[in-house]
Design a protein that fits this description.
The chain is α/β, with parallel strands linked by helices. It is built from 3 helices and 7 strands. It has a 5-stranded mixed β-sheet with strand order 4-3-2-5-6, covered by helices on one side. The chain has a two-stranded parallel sheet with strand order 1-7. Helix 3 links the parallel strand 5 (98-103) and strand 6 (124-127). The longest helix has 17 residues, at 13-29.
Length: 133
């Protein structure tokens, strides 16, 4: 009995809820996107990776002819070290620059070779894996 006959904006409240959800989904979907934009099938492990702020992400895809990616940039295997060194120049987190290696299950030997090259240049290499289900 206390509401007026025409409550005005009371009918607009479901629309406000809908708009809030529409704005919330794009904000959450960016955190669910692949880390470097390259799809690889990671090996499983029960080890937890330490957190590193803004690592240089190197991805190696599987298959007969693996592709090498630094971030979202496709590179040749020979140019990979030079590009990682160039990105390490802007490293601000202290200590040795961290390289997060995302290596497909079928390309692990390529990943080991790249990791040995990076370790010899003084980089800290971290291997990404998915948890055992």
């Amino acid at each position: 009995m206390s509401l007026p006959e025409r409550p005005g904006l009371m009918h607009a409240l479901p629309l406000v809820d809908l708009l809030a959800l529409v704005m919330l989904f794009p904000l959450l979907s960016t955190s669910l996107a692949p880390q470097a934009g390259v799809e690889v099938e990671l090996p499983e492990t029960d080890f937890r990776l330490q957190r590193v702020a803004n690592p240089i992400v190197v991805s190696i895809t599987g298959g007969v002819d693996p592709q090498f990616w630094v971030g979202k940039e496709l590179v040749e295997e020979d140019d990979l070290l030079a590009l990682v060194q160039k990105r390490a120049e802007s490293w601000e987190s202290g200590g040795a620059p961290a390289v997060l290696m995302r290596v497909d299950k079928s390309a692990q030997m390529h990943g080991v070779n790249v990791m040995l090259k990076l370790k010899s240049e003084g980089f800290r290499c971290l291997l990404a894996a998915k948890p055992i289900q």
